[in-house]
UniProtKB/TrEMBL annotation:
The keyword Kinase applies. This is PTS glucose transporter subunit IIA. Its main location: cytoplasm. It comes from Tigheibacillus halophilus. The keyword Transport applies.
Length: 149
């Protein structure tokens, strides 16, 4: 499910080669309409870095997901981010994970586009299909479909 409201973009459109060339894994990106992230899956939080610019999680099926809020946001050193979860928390679809100051990030970071990446996609043995939708509704829009190869 979509972790935030906004405009859906192909990962290849993210202006950062780490994401656009899928070095981190398969995925999709969303240009946020507001500063709220919700859980896209039922699973567990495995990482909220001290810089608070991202959330790492693992689903019940072993899918590892990274939600990276904006580009070069690690430089903000946590300013503008308010985590609602911590490492080890169990979460369900739609549960709030993070709030962020969208205007602050627009002013101080390279970009607000938010990649949602399956970090273990290369060796998962699964196939990932990205949505054709243009608009994401948090907790409602299916953005990635996972199937067996």
């Amino acid at each position: 499910m979509a972790p935030l409201n906004g405009e859906i973009k192909a990962l290849e459109e993210v202006p950062d080669p780490v994401f656009s060339e899928k070095m981190m894994g398969e995925g999709i990106a969303i240009v946020p309409a507001e500063g709220k992230i919700v859980s896209p899956i039922d699973g567990e939080i495995v990482q909220v870095p001290d810089t608070k610019h991202a959330v790492g999680m693992v689903g019940k099926d072993g899918t590892e997901i990274l939600i990276h809020i904006g580009l070069e946001t690690v430089e903000l050193k946590g300013e503008g981010f308010t985590p609602k979860v911590q490492t080890g928390d169990k979460v369900t679809v739609g549960q709030p994970l993070m709030e962020f100051d969208l205007e602050y990030i627009q002013e101080h970071a390279k970009d607000v586009i938010t990649p949602i990446v399956i970090t273990n996609s290369a060796n998962s043995g699964k196939h990932y299909t990205m949505t054709n939708e243009n608009e994401a509704k948090a907790g409602e829009t299916v953005i990635i479909t996972v199937s067996e190869k």
